[in-house]
Amino acid sequence: MNGGPSVELRRSRGALVLALVCVLGGVVLLALPRDDALLRTIIAAGAVALGVVALFSALRPFRFGIGADGLTIRRPGLRRSIPWAEVDTLVLDEPPRRDGRPVPPRLLLVPVPGVTVGPRVTARHPVDGRPAIELLVLDQVREQPEQVSAALTTYAGGRFVDLPALRRAAFADPDLPTGLRGYRMDQVDQLIRRGQDALVSGDAQTRQAARAEIERSRAAGLLIAQRGYSRLQADTVLDALVAALADHSSTDRETAP
């Protein structure tokens, strides 16, 4: 990540490496002598075609600059400078885990009302549901999420929200072990995320609704998967989350005029 008056994010090389591997693998398959020539040719042609498409995508112009005046973006579907005056909120979000594995964070932009940034709205603010535009998935760049967050904090100021950091501060992400006949991971992850977002929202009704949803799901019985989260540890985490939501509700009642 470069210093100076602005910060330029560097594109990840992962897509380029994958493209080259596909092309070279296809060429090698074509060169190897085998009896099943037709099948080999079909597989090799598919690998080369996939590699060419990925290579074309990896070599397309890319720029993501963060500076005092705003954002400068050059990527498929969006090529323009976005001044801070057009930005209501920038949200660094991390989608719920998929099969127990982390999903790359993404950067969402909520424009100022009446402003059209360019691409059509394809996302929502994770907490308040406002329409948003996905600017960047962070696995596309070499910088770590913490570095991107630091740059946006410096230049975007109060417009920027580091939602993963707020979630961890409200309720730490659990490291749940997996095993046979455990709770279905996506259901548990969704419930934990629902509770974290409710704690971050600062709204008493949202917290009460999240607590009720978790309790209803557990009363109905969480789904069991062939391989899932350890039931004992997941129950302990959900107990703690429900308690945190209840504690905040109690504080709201005590401080209400």
The gist of it:
This protein has 257 residues and is α+β, with helices and mostly antiparallel strands. 46% of the residues lie in helices and 23% in strands. The chain has helices at residues 14-31, 37-58, 145-156, 163-170, 185-201, 204-220, 231-255, and strands at residues 6-9, 63-67, 70-75, 78-83, 87-93, 106-111, 123-124, 131-137, 160-162, 178-183, 224-229.
Structure characterization notes:
The protein is of the alpha+beta class. Helix content is 46%, strand content 23%. It is built from seven helices and eleven strands. The strands form three sheets. It has a five-stranded mixed beta sheet.
Structural features:
46% helix; 11 strands; alpha+beta; 257 residues; four-stranded antiparallel beta sheet
Helix content: 40-55%
| Strands side by side in the biggest sheet | 7-8-6-5-9
Q: Write down the secondary-structure element order.
A: EHHEEEEEEEHEHEHHEH
Q: Give the distance, in angstroms, between the N- and C-terminal Cα atoms.
A: 49 Å
Mean pLDDT: 84
> Which shape, going by the Cα principal axes?
flat
| Percent of sequence in beta strands | 15-25%
Largest sheet: 5 strands, mixed
Count every helix, treating DSSP H or I runs of 4 or more residues as helices.
7
Care to count the β-strands? Answer: 11
How would you classify the helix and strand content by structural class? alpha+beta
